[in-house]
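ugh ok fine here u go
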Amino acid sequence: MTEIIVTTPDCEIESSRIINASREIVFRAWSDPNHLKNWWGPSGFSNTFNEFDFRVGGKWNFVMHGPDKGNYVNDCEFIKIESPSLIAWKRYSKPLFQVVATFEEISANKTKIVFKQIFNSVIECNKIKKYTVGKNDENFDRLEEELLKMTENYEYRLTICQERQHGVLCNLARQTIFSSGLTRPDIGCP
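structure:
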């Protein structure tokens, strides 16, 4: 099993953001390929996932399609997963580095994400550092858009529940939805 490399801050690129969503639903957006493919990468990029085996030792193989030109093959291996607090992977395609993403619960509806790219050398880190920070912010923007779609889907399901089911079935659906990671106290069954 590959270990997360220990290095110094000058060999790392770190980006973070506080997201208005529960840690569980944020983790799902990172660990479910049906959501991840929608937001992974900077603005204008799309993804084709060829393999996504979300377990330690599992492979993640995908192609990022650039908005203007280029297809970028990514071969990765998951090296550490601690649901819902950490996902780490190693890239086998260049540029070579590891990624560690952590998810810290700030409150029921707020999660701090720290996204760290870890390189073996300062030289390798500096080659992409000037491009990466802004692109990581675009990635977080796209994640927030996907999280909104995920919660809107739950809201839609809950609205249907409110309109058609009411009572016990509605309360059961609300409990199921909320226990799955969505915590929206402003929406509830009558």
